[in-house]
Amino acid sequence: MENVKRIFLEEHQMEIALIGTMHVSQDSASAVQRLILEEGPDTVCIELDESRMDAIAHYRESGREGHGANRSLERLLESFQKQIGDKMNTAPGADFSVAIESARTVQARVVLIDRDIRTTLDRMWKALGPFGKLRFFFYLVREMRQARLMKQEELESLTEQQEVFEALEELAERFPALKRTLVDERDAHMAARIKECGGKKVVVVLGAGHLLGVTRLLQMAP
Description:
Layout: E1 4-9, E2 14-21, H1 26-39, E3 43-46, H2 50-57, H3 68-87, H4 94-105, E4 109-112, H5 117-149, H6 152-156, H7 161-174, H8 176-196, E5 201-207, H9 208-219
Helix pairs in contact: 1-4, 3-5, 5-8, 7-8, 8-9
């Protein structure tokens, strides 16, 4: 599969298969299930924190406490993801739900590797600055409008590596502070958590936008 990277960490004697997904894609969910059942790992690492795990488990908005601006941003992001999920007839976080179910099937431990979403949103909001916040809201609204016009196959193509690379490049150009807090810092956090997970045969399920960054960090010398 194109969105699967395999590496071996000699220092930890850890065999890792990382799969990049789209969180509202049934094809991604099926690929996750297939990989976990075929690999039979002892550990499945998932790009979630406790609060997002709880939200997915109950298929609802997270209900997290937060500052007014942070909560508004969070609701807009949730709405964006739900809109795409509705278009593709898939619940948001289907890839993670399937990963958890498949881990239970093969009796693997589930390890949550993402940074607390509240920390990420706080850092992102502060880094954007007043004008950046306004620009980002308009950017999200524009992206939501464009997503409404996209066909299902066009949305599925967003997991392809070239599409992901171009999207991250655009994000870095428009909002460098946002890319740093939303992508780069979380990549580093997740790579460290994977190394600490204690597994020997590990499957990592994470968004396609994190696949290359986390893989690169894992391959770097400690």
